[in-house]
Amino acid sequence: MKVIGIEHIVFVSTVLFFIGIYGFLTRRNMITMLMSIELILNSVCLNFVSFNKFLYHDKLEGVFFTLFIITIAAAEAAVAIAIIINLYRSYKTIDIEEADELKF
Amino acid sequence: MNQGIILNIINSTFGLSAIIFFPFLSFLILGLSGIKSFKKYASFIGIISILATFILSSIVALEYFFISGKTADGFVKITALNFEWLKFSESISLNVGILLDPISVMMILIVSFISLMVHIFSAGYMKDDKRIKIYYSFLSLFTFSMLGLVVSTNIFQMYIFWELVGVSSFLLIGYYYQKPEAVAAAKKAFIVTRFADLGFLIGILIISYYSQSLDFVTIIERLTGESQYLNSSVAVSFLGVSALTWALVLIFIGGAGKSAMFPLHIWLPDAMEGPTPVSALIHAATMVVAGVFLVARLFPVYSLSCPAALDVVAFTGVFTALFAALIACTQTDIKRVLAYSTISQIGFMIFSLGISGYGGESGLGYMASMFHLFTHAMFKALLFLGAGVVIHYIHSNEVKDMGGLRKQLPITNLCFLFACLAISGIPPFSGFFSKEEILLAAWNSNKTVFFIALFTAFLTAFYMFRLYFLIFWHNKPSNSKSKAESHFSMIIPLLVLAVLTIITGFVPFGNLITSDGKILHSHFHFSFSIIPIIVAIAGIMLSAILFKTKSNKTENLNLENLLKPVKNKFYIDEIYIFITRKLVFSLVAKPAAWFDKNIIDGTVNYSGELTGKVSEKIKTLHSGKTQGYALWFVLGLIILVLVFAYIFY
Fold this sequence. Notes:
The complex is a heterodimer. Chain A is mainly alpha-helical.
């Protein structure tokens, strides 16, 4: 049985990252876009943890950074949802295509 | 030298500066308060402030000539006040102060006196004018600038006040701004004198560069006699003429502009568009004598160090005197005749300075010039104020509308006659004495100038009496009994000036004002004055024959064709228009305007337009779609990743 190595984990995180990018660029629903952002963040977290474990296993910076990202992501989710609610109050929709008035 | 006098104004800073600042104060009060508030008292405020100035300057004159300035054999220069205002370098600084010497004391006396007369006269002449407050504030500004000019200690201070005189004359000439001619005349006066002032400024720069000073006393000290300053300024030459000569000629150009010397005289006849009392002020005491004063102020430098520049002064003066007198014989607008007579008389003063030497007997021309300035101020103010009464009565400037006014305007008639006799040089009127000295000075130094001046004196008598007869005789007096000379404020100045016109000739001028400050004992050759008197009487007789009564004589002479160029003022105005319109405008100004419009403006406009077009194109990137922006962001990220990958692997 093959041991799960760093390349597997990096592969998973890359896949997660591009799924997140794809979702962010194609979904119209703001909640779904927020979820895509969470995917991107989590792929980064995965990278940090795995590199910490496989390359510098006597250090803790990667783990700490991941904890920071989780905290920031929570705060960011709160802000994002507040924005979405406010947009919903003015536009009666959470479709991102409708909120396009900030332009030239 | 305090000899226990009661009023010691010369040594009091406040008293001296009050001479200049009373008119300025009245300018501020009248100019800054609203146009309608205390309008009735406008003339009162103006007259009071000038009266105070006049009283102070009379006291200063008495103190200077009899106590403070007097030494055993002449007068000293007193720098009464001198504040440093701007320091350009170690040696050159711009000071503001009051310099008292015989000519400046005489000038403050004349300026404040004539201005007082004009202020009083204007109270009657302008009493129905709506903008009388503005009129009086301008008049006060004019007086202030001229007083500041004559007491300058510093050539730059003089230049500042010089320009102020230009501005205030512009304001006064254009006072009737509803009339297009007045606006044109004001612009013309300002532009012509401004153009000449450029020469003055360059002259100041050259002279201050070589003498390392802007102070009059220092300049005169350094540029006369043997000194390194004089040597360096004479050593440098440009176009074969030394730097000092250039400087003095350029300064004289500034003076010629203000004093209306040929060919810069064109503004003065047009300046007649202003109110008549203003013309009296401009012609008698303020603006036009500024040029004479300037040359007189720097006279030691002209005379001792640079006779070539003084020759320029002399020939300009004598030519202008003759030229203007010829034109004056043909004009029909009474104010224009007086304007040309002013130009001619100023020409007398200028050439008299030009032929004068420095010190002693040979300095007679200088003394005569200042004497003529003094007497001319009186009788020319009288002539203009008299003309003002006539114009006020007739409501026209043309002689053809007048004639036979001697019954309606008896006092004016008499005063005008006195002034005409004075300007023609008939004893015992003041003009006789000063003109006599000028002619004598000319006889002693340059015979050509003397004969031209003698002929001009004949013309002067002729055209002045032509004017006098055309106004007051010529036609039969009408019997209308309308009261023309009702307003006492217009008659009092006339009478005062008439009395002065008679008596000022007896002032012992040689004891007061001379080129080197030493007393020049008066010498009066009666035998010499016979010819000028005969010439003047001949002029008067000729005009009496031609113009005293209406006749066909003038028509029979058929001089029309001969006099046409003279009547059209020798086409000088046309030449100016040709040069400015045809040559300067079409050859220089139009290409310059084209370059400015197309190249300069074009560059600016096109760059603006280009920016507009480009931003029009790229603004579509700002769609407002969040995901669009995110797409650009991701694409950029990918490109960066590829670039880094290429660089590092």
